[in-house]
Amino acid sequence: MQYWDWIRNAAVGDFGQSFRFKMPVTDLIGQRIANTFWLALATLVLTYLIAIPLGIISGRYNDTWSDRLITGYTYLGFAAPLFIFALVMVWVFGFHFGWFPTGGSVAPGLTPGTFDYVVSKIHHLLLPALSMALISTVSTVQYLRSEIIDIKHKEFVLTARAKGASESRIYNRHILRNSLLPIAAFFGYEITGLIGGTIFIESIFSYPGMGQLFLNSISLRDFSVVTALVLLYGIATILGSLLSDIILGLVDPRIRIK
């Protein structure tokens, strides 16, 4: 009966009260969701800005020194746990060099909406987003590299070369376009990985988002908050998978439903 009541209330946006914070769960999540959204968006943008050029270089010039360096980076990325790597980033760039803040989402005392406030938000966002992007990049680099190496030996690429097409045209019009199809299909899994990654990143960087709230609620046994966040994370995962299918249909006309 309790579970049925919770589902009925959640359907209209009522997730109950937080035992720890003594406030509605909806209001509590509303205070944190914007920070997590911007962190995930910045991480996603940085991931593809780093991964696509590295994947193209590694796949186009495979078995060269640049390919070996990029492949070595991906092996280190696969081996390094996210929470260990994030701690190293905090120590090096936060404490040792002091280039980035090590906690919070904005400097205290700033007025929301001002230029200094926006700059401070971006400054606090960069290090956690970059820490997560450098780890999540490695899978995309390996996928893109493998696809480029496989496609550039296909018969239609050899035919284009035989017809005298330039290498830049072959890569841009034939190889790269077909190589990006698995990346589009992998997009939903990137969002799913970001959901798990933000939980650790927000805790390590003391970044006030849903991930930090999730871990704190588990330790404090604030179950109304935990169940609401699990539901939201599940919905985000489903929407990410749906978005992948939509993007894949736009990129590859062959799989569109007629």
| Class inferred from helices and paired strands | mainly alpha
* Strand composition percent: under 5%
Shape: globular
> What integer value in Å does the Rg equal?
22 Å
Which series of helices and strands comes N to C? HHHHHHHHHH
N-C termini distance: 45 Å
Assign a percent range to the helix content: over 70%
Strands, count? 0
Number of helices: 10
Report low-confidence residues grouped into runs of 5 or more.
none
Largest sheet: none
- Compute the average pLDDT: 80
Written overview of the protein:
This protein is an all-alpha fold and 258 residues long. It is 76% helix and 0% strand. It is built from ten helices and no strands. The termini are far apart.
For the structure shown, list the relevant keywords.
mainly alpha; 258 residues; globular; single chain; 76% helix
Short description:
This protein is mostly helical and 258 residues long. The protein has helices at residues 2-10, 25-60, 65-79, 82-96, 115-151, 155-162, 167-185, 187-204, 210-220, 223-251.
List the helices and strands and how they pair.
Elements: H1 2-10, H2 25-60, H3 65-79, H4 82-96, H5 115-151, H6 155-162, H7 167-185, H8 187-204, H9 210-220, H10 223-251
Helix pairs in contact: 2-3, 2-5, 2-8, 3-5, 4-5, 4-8, 5-7, 5-8, 6-7, 7-10, 8-9, 8-10, 9-10
